[in-house]
Amino acid sequence: MFNTNIVIFFPTFLECRKVLNISDFSSYFYFDTAVYKSIPIIITGAGKSNAAAHSALFFSEFKPKYPLLTGICGAYQNTGIKISDVVCIDYDYFADEANYNGNILTTIHEKGFIIAKDNRAEFQVDENFKKVSSNTVSLIPQFNSLSNIYMAKTNALVENMEGAAFGIAANKFGIKPYQIRAVSNYCGNIEKQQWDINNACVSLKKAVDLFIETHK
């Protein structure tokens, strides 16, 4: 099933269903899977732990030419990125593996506890989409001060919950995957997040279809 050039990974069933209108999932080789346009789909599960575990297991057995992680993400405010924009991530940082004293964020990488080279995972870039860097976080603040610190730490423009973990697992097997996301909301102040998952998923479906068409 996975011996194809393209394999697409979604963090959650919700994102996959809303983007690709898929409802028929099954279990195969420890994975929750589906098929879209003859392309295998895998659900990694939300968050860094699920993404790392499932992607490491997958890449230990299979080596697709064009693995793609996709889903929604948040954009930092005042970056010029709009809700429903589609972005292609080049580097994804482990932004909150860190100490935080209320003012200063010091990553454990800076303290000498190395997770990955330069504290980030590396992805291939698809020139059809806007290239940005991302932060992968587990702690998602609903106020601006910490979001601004995350952004300033790495100069990332967006954030998600799986990318760096997925990417580092792939990188350890000599694979540079792709990561394409659609912006569903702004990060930070809860009153200014402007969530719009539906339109983000419409944009993302077009992006996934384009990726398939240009890489098949």
TrEMBL record:
Matches recorded under Pfam families: PNP_UDP_1
GO BP, sorted A to Z: L-methionine salvage from S-adenosylmethionine; nucleoside metabolic process
Record keywords: Glycosidase, Hydrolase
Gene Ontology CC terms, in alphabetical order: cytosol
GO molecular function: adenosylhomocysteine nucleosidase activity; methylthioadenosine nucleosidase activity
Enzyme Commission numbers on file: 3.2.2.26
Domain Nucleoside phosphorylase stretches: 38-208
PANTHER family xref list: 5'-METHYLTHIOADENOSINE/S-ADENOSYLHOMOCYSTEINE NUCLEOSIDASE, FUTALOSINE HYDROLASE
Protein name stated in the entry: Futalosine hydrolase
Gene designation: mqnB
